[in-house]
Amino acid sequence: KKSEQELKDEEMELFTKYYVEWKGGRKSGNTSYTNIPRFYYRLPAEDEILLQKLREESRAVFLQRKSRELLDNEELQNLWFLLDKHQTSPMIGEEAMINYENFLKVGEKAGPKCKQFFTAKIFAKLLHNDPYGRISIMQFFNYVMRKG
Fold first, then answer.
1. One biological process GO term for this chain (predicted)?
2. 92 phi and psi angles, rounded to 5 deg
3. How far is it, in rounded angstroms, from Cα 92 to Cα 73?
4. Is the peptide bond before 90 cis (omega within 30 degrees of 0)?
């Protein structure tokens, strides 16, 4: 036979277990919160020279990688040439336009750095009140120059 204190302890343990489950708290075996990535790292102090050097080096490597992703002048000229070659008639005033089909063709020929710009989402973002469902080549090119 259990003592009164043991019964109270067991009751409290069961109550806590069921309450936590009911509240949606920690369930046994659920450790998804341990998979959340760390997003804040404190800046190294002045006396932590090695950490400061590591931060500077990692920043330099990051900037170099981002720089390699940018389109250089030759790639931009090639992109403009392809867009101009695949424009879809009729022109609206002086504005050259391109439809989605030709937009995708240019995306295939433009190269791997440009691939990120040839998506349906970007086409739709630049699509305005054109009765033929086209976008302005100049607007698209300006978008690439701003984002790339």
1. microtubule cytoskeleton organization
2. -105, 100
3. 28
4. yes
